[in-house]
Amino acid sequence: MDNYYNSILLAAKLLSKETYCTGTLRVDRKYIPADIKADNLTMGGTITRYGEGIMVGKWKDQRAIVYLSTEHENDMVTVINKRKVKVLKPLPIVKYNGFMKGVDRSDQMQAYYPMERKTLQWSKKMFIHTIQMMIVNAYYLFNKTFQIYRRKMGLHEFTESVKDDLLPDIPAVTRPLPRPTGHMIMKIAKKMGNTNRISSKKCCMCKKSTQYKCLACLGQTFWLVEGM
Questions:
Q1: How many Å apart are CA 55 and CA 111, to the nearest integer?
Q2: pLDDT one-digit tens code per residue, 102-152
Q3: b/e string for 1-37 if b means 16 or more Cβ within 10 A?
Q4: Per-residue pLDDT tens for 30-51?
Q5: In this structure, are residues 25 and 66 in contact, taking their beta carbons and an 8 Å threshold?
Q6: How far apart (Å, rounded) are the C-alpha atoms in residues 215 and 109?
Q7: What angle do helix axes 91-112 and 155-166 make, rounded to 10 degrees?
Q8: Whole-model pTM over 0.85
Q9: Cβ(48)–Cβ(25) under 8 Å?
């Protein structure tokens, strides 16, 4: 459990419901023993206090880390760090790092291409965040499943492919032809005797049927006029 949510009261509440937890703990939380808060540990040192089935510990590596667990003892175990060196760490810290690694990686990948926007409606933000988590999880499963058949796809490329598959194609917007300048546009007169027949010609630009002609061109040029 992350230290933003973790507390001794929450751990006790979960333990009463037979739910166990392990996680880091902020030093300013309530009911933390005073000797845990005191900064008197040397490099690699640890101190532990127990009460009501809850273990609160402190271990100093590069900096002091306060942690809490209701499922693990404060046993020191040997692990290999990033520099390929064997070091001793408390068992709760090792378990916490093992399970939180995927969560931190997911948060890191979501931060590459954030989708959240400022909004007063928390439901919109929650919905967009859920969609982003689904995309990151799908990206991980896609590369894990299909990487033996094709090259590994990047997150941005994968997101674009999902967008292209889900969103419909946007039809091209056809703009009306601009009205020509230097011409005198008027409606074609009806032929004598054909009162019910509409006179029309082909437009010189788009070849569509039109009822307008240009007097400046001696009636030889016909224009399709929008909105008339």
A1: 34
A2: 666 777 788 888 877 776 688 888 888 889 989 999 998 888 887 666 677
A3: bebeebbbeebeeebeeeeebbbbbeeebeebeeebe
A4: 889 888 988 788 888 999 999 8
A5: yes
A6: 66
A7: 60
A8: no
A9: no
